[in-house]
Amino acid sequence: MTTTNAAHGRAPDLLGQTVVLIGGSAGIGFETARRARAEGADVVLAARHPERLERAAHELGALRSAAFDATDVEQLDRFFAELPPFDHVLVTAGEPHYESLAEMDFARARAFLEQHLLLPLHVARSSVDKIRPGGSLLFMGGTGARRPGVGLTLGSAVTVGMPALVASLALEVKPVRVNLIAAGFVDTPLSASILGDQLDARRTELRDTLPIGRVVGPEDVAALAVHLMANTALTGATYDIDGGQQLLGPA
Description:
Layout: H1 3-7, E1 18-22, H2 27-38, E2 42-47, H3 50-60, E3 64-67, H4 73-81, E4 86-91, H5 106-127, E5 131-142, H6 153-172, E6 177-183, H7 189-195, H8 199-209, H9 218-230, E7 238-241
Parallel strand pairs: 1-2, 1-4, 2-3, 4-5, 5-6, 6-7
Helix pairs in contact: 2-9, 4-5, 5-6
């Protein structure tokens, strides 16, 4: 896993560390686990879907894995209680929410808020005593809902609220570091399931308009995530990764 780094004359960034990934069986979580392994870390994977999780754990040589719904607080507490000390936690669990007020399903709305606002707090409380010095908590947010729009009521509230939550949490759980990745469109299986037959058109549009001239992939986000884990000067901040999408004005 470390031969590429050795060839470039540097030690792996996460050598000897352990990274816990909640939502680690696919997309950004899986790619971050792969990147962490390449940088010398052991990985622990947690996700809801047992079969997909088992495949991911086998492919990555995960230290251990656990299938459960992260919003189940009792299972989440038990998961962390059973782990030996570790260094970093990345949470990618959760899905976007697009509903107008007239169409809003309030049960789904509550679940969305649970995933994006309460889950980080539960994770922090359950894990902080297990995190080794220099370690970190890393959460995922977004950039798209920074502009208001019909159907983005809850998405906008969470997008604005998450940076404040992370900044305050960084003070409360110090010296554990806490950071937020705010992503634009990322070409993941989740994006494909949301867009369906409009996926290729969206990819083409982004390739034609983004300043970087290509679509952001999960490996791009994984590289940023591992950097935020390794750089012990970074805490309480939000890091955008959207290929320059915000520079283009309203979609």
